[in-house]
Write a structure and sequence with these properties.
Blueprint: H1 12-17, H2 34-44, H3 51-70, H4 73-85, E1 90-93, E2 109-112, E3 118-128, E4 136-142, E5 153-159, E6 166-170, E7 182-192, E8 196-197, H5 203-239, E9 241-242, E10 245-246, H6 251-280, H7 283-289, H8 291-316, H9 328-336, H10 338-341, H11 347-371
Helix pairs in contact: 2-5, 2-6, 3-4, 3-5, 5-6, 5-8, 5-9, 6-8, 8-9, 8-11
Domain Acyl-CoA dehydrogenase/oxidase C-terminal: 201-358
InterPro entries: Acyl-CoA_dehydrogenase, Acyl-CoA_DH_CS, Acyl-CoA_Oxase/DH_mid-dom, Acyl-CoA_Oxase/DH_mid-dom_sf, AcylCo_DH-like_C, AcylCo_DH/oxidase_C, AcylCoA_DH/ox_N_sf, AcylCoA_DH/oxidase_NM_dom_sf
GO molecular function: acyl-CoA dehydrogenase activity; flavin adenine dinucleotide binding
Length: 377
């Protein structure tokens, strides 16, 4: 059931080696694609609650792919059998107290020991989903000198739960309360030198390949939550009476529903379009062409979710401001909005990133056309 959280295509050879040939529902592992992943992500949030699904799948969805794509065969052999079968858990640990969307600004360091057998890791990680339950983290660390920016980042598989030098505590956050948001302190943590994923100082490049899947997953969940919020409000205004008639007979109420609904339907179509494109584009081309647009999609998902959650709470009135009773779900979803707009790249950063990347692609393609004797138009 958990494996559909991974990006398509699934690691078929590894799964079959582990005796896994089908997914929930009987789908063959080799037939799984991004549209199946979209359906899975949508169903996991159908109740409106993102926390339970996040507590199960976030680490697998975003921490394991880096190992699958870039780790040596030796590292894969040590970790994938347990991660892919759920015997052990892995999270993704990038964000720090002073470096969130600015990944290049991380300061957690990994220095080789004098004996050459260990990485000695020091620093802190914050807002790490499912960290509190994780045995390991695919962790971004600085292996280059101070000031090396994106060029000095590496990925290590760092042991967490019960490991000497690791202290973890759970954070209380506004939404997705059951997702295990964690603060991690690392004090001279010994990590086997072999736990390096890929090449040293290439971590930023690896992290970038994760973003399309992560942001599409976030957008998928937010779109379903927005639909739950609006559907809940729609059901309420059909039965709630004010001024002698159901709320739905008030033009201002219908206007609010229509405005939010139009945005939601457009967003749904856009998310489905991205899932479809990821089934058609080769992975390398998708990483290049969809990076900016998926950043924009994730940002827009948060914007639309906010509109739908606002609409729901306003139409529920006092009930929407109350944590129990008829408006309980609307009130809860209102608190979930920022869990979409901030994690995975905050909204303003992603809006800017989207345009910068699209400008970059435009310039490259314009030069290619001119080199072939074509016109800018």
């Amino acid at each position: 059931m958990l494996l559909p959280a991974l990006p398509a295509p699934l690691p078929v050879a590894w799964l079959k080696k582990l005796g896994i040939h089908t997914l929930l529902g009987g789908l063959k592992v080799e037939e799984f694609d991004s549209l199946h992943g979209y359906i899975f992500g949508d169903e996991m949030v159908r109740s409106g609650l993102a926390g339970p699904g996040a507590s199960l799948t976030t680490g697998l969805a975003f921490g394991v792919p880096l190992i699958l794509k870039f780790a040596s065969e030796e590292v894969k052999a040590r970790f994938l059998p347990d991660f892919l079968t759920g015997r052990k858990r892995c999270c993704i640990a990038i964000t720090e107290p002073d470096a969130g969307s600015d990944v290049a600004g991380i300061t957690t360091t990994a220095v080789r020991s004098e004996c050459g057998k260990w990485w000695i890791v020091n620093g802190t990680k914050k807002w790490i989903t499912t960290g509190i339950w994780s045995d390991y983290a695919s962790m971004a660390v600085r292996t280059g000198p101070p000031g090396s920016g994106a060029g000095g980042i590496s990925i290590l598989v760092v042991p967490l739960k019960g490991h000497p030098g690791v202290t973890m505590r759970r954070l209380s956050v506004s939404g997705t309360a059951s997702s295990g948001t964690t603060y991690i302190e690392l004090d001279d943590v010994k990590v086997p030198i072999e736990n390096l994923v890929g090449e040293e100082n290439q971590g930023m490049r690896y992290i970038m390949t994760n973003f399309n899947h992560e942001r599409l997953a976030v957008a998928t969940g937010a779109t379903r939550q927005a639909r739950v919020a609006l559907a809940t409000a729609f059901e309420y205004v059909l039965k709630r009476e004010a001024f002698g008639k159901p709320l739905v007979e008030q033009p201002v109420v219908r206007h609010r529903l229509a405005k939010a609904g139009a945005q939601l339907e457009s967003l749904t179509a856009w998310v489905e379009q991205f899932a479809y494109m990821m089934t058609k584009l080769p992975a390398q081309q998708a990483d290049l062409m969809l990076g900016g647009p998926t950043a924009l999609l994730k940002a827009q998902a948060g914007i639309v979710f906010k509109e739908c959650a606002d609409t729901a709470v306003l139409l529920f009135g006092g009930n929407g401001y109350t944590k129990t009773g008829q408006g309980q779900l609307a009130e809860m979803l209102y608190r979930e909005v920022m869990g979409t707009r901030i994690p995975g790249g905050s909204e303003d950063v992603l809006l800017d990133l989207a345009v910068r990347q699209l400008v970059k692609i435009y310039k490259v393609q314009t030069k290619m056309l001119e080199a072939q004797g074509g016109s800018k138009l």
